[in-house]
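Need a sequence for this fold. Nothing fancy.
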């Protein structure tokens, strides 16, 4: 893109933003918010309070937060080791999940309820 085309594009964007700004200036809702902010700041100055003081009064937990909250990773409970002992063969299986190949074979052969009764821990 040529410098002239870039200039004209930016000039057009600026004109659009200025038109939007002028329309916002005539918005009564915005005028009310601006008046409220002016009065609030004057009141805070009169009593020597800052916005942080007010936030601390209204929401004490917010005062302890940092300006950029750090995401807290949820700690997952570690899976417990399950130990199964086959009374027929004496074979022992230690697993944390249900995808153990031999455990699946036992459950197919003997039934899940029977194999679950073999759990020692």
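Here you go.
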């Amino acid at each position: 893109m040529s410098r002239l085309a870039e200039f004209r594009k930016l000039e057009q964007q600026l004109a659009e933003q200025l038109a939007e700004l002028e329309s916002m200036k005539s918005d009564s809702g915005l005028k009310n918010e601006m008046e409220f902010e002016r009065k609030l700041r004057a009141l805070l100055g009169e009593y020597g309070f800052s916005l942080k003081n007010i936030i601390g009064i209204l929401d004490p937990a917010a005062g302890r937060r940092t300006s950029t909250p750090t995401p807290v990773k949820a700690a997952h409970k570690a899976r417990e080791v399950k130990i199964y002992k086959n009374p027929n063969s004496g074979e022992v299986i230690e697993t944390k999940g249900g995808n153990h190949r031999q455990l699946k074979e036992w459950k197919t052969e003997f039934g899940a309820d029977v194999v679950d009764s073999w759990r020692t821990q």
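For context: The chain is about 60% helix and 5% strand.
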